[in-house]
Predict the structure.
Amino acid sequence: MPREEVTGKVTAVFSLKNKNAIVTGAGSGIGRAIAEAFAQQGAVVDILELNLDGAAETAAAIESAGGTAATHECDVTDQAATAAVFEKIVAERGSLDCLINNAGIAHVGNVLNTSEDDFDRVMNVNTKGVYNCLKAGVAHMTERGGAIVNIASTVSVMAINDRFAYSTSKGAVLAMTYSVAKDYLEQNIRCNAILPGRIHTPFVDGFIAKNYPGREEEKFRELSEYQPCGRMGKPEEVAATAVFLCSDEASFITGCPYPVDGGTLYVR
Ligand SMILES: NC(=O)c1ccc[n+]([C@@H]2O[C@H](COP(=O)([O-])OP(=O)(O)OC[C@H]3O[C@@H](n4cnc5c(N)ncnc54)[C@H](O)[C@@H]3O)[C@@H](O)[C@H]2O)c1
């Protein structure tokens, strides 16, 4: 129960009550955890997804916990379609207060074995998709302000083997975060990035299954031990940071990269 209801006086901490939020890629993994955490804190959540079945599962979980959510089929690489979905949502909800740019895809390869098609595909989803949602979302926030969280990665600022295209795409997400934070200071639009380390989601399971068939357990252990704290993160741990960054308690925070990485960047 929120604190304000318990005491009748104290305002709930990290409340997202009366806020309308859009979360992209919330049919799975980190996005699903973010959508559920936002709804739990009182936000109305609209999910943009390619995978409508996954999105429907997330929305059903939110509704059965007493929250409010809706799903929208949307490929974030399509600028016109994305803008139209944002228009429709804002017309229905009356405002857009929070935007979480989470949809993304993985790719393994170095500069020599990354094909032009692979590079274009990764950049199209991870970078252009965020640009499309920022363009659509910021337009609806200029009058009353808002909070944006871009899900970047530790590889936005560090190197790991064989992530040429992926790192490039996530470096750009961090650069876009700084740019939007700077350009919309006066409109009270805060824009921050979360830099997750390895988080255990279907994204990671899929990556292991595809690239290390027959060696899944060994690879899972190796990837867990890569984090100085000895394990992968949980989607809920990323979601909690996103809740904080969109809450009024984070009102003095903009243009910041937030590692959620078990010590990967700074505690080696
Ligand atoms: N899992 C990790 O270890 C990790 C680490 C750092 C950053 N990230 C980032 O976190 C985000 C979420 O990752 P996850 O592990 O939850 O992945 P996931 O694969 O479990 O979920 C990603 C979701 O995005 C959706 N999506 C993909 N392309 C889309 C498009 N064009 N339009 C709309 N939706 C689309 C997918 O359908 C999927 O439901 C990604 O941006 C990823 O790069 C993940």
Summary: Residues 198 and 232 are 5 Å apart (CA to CA).
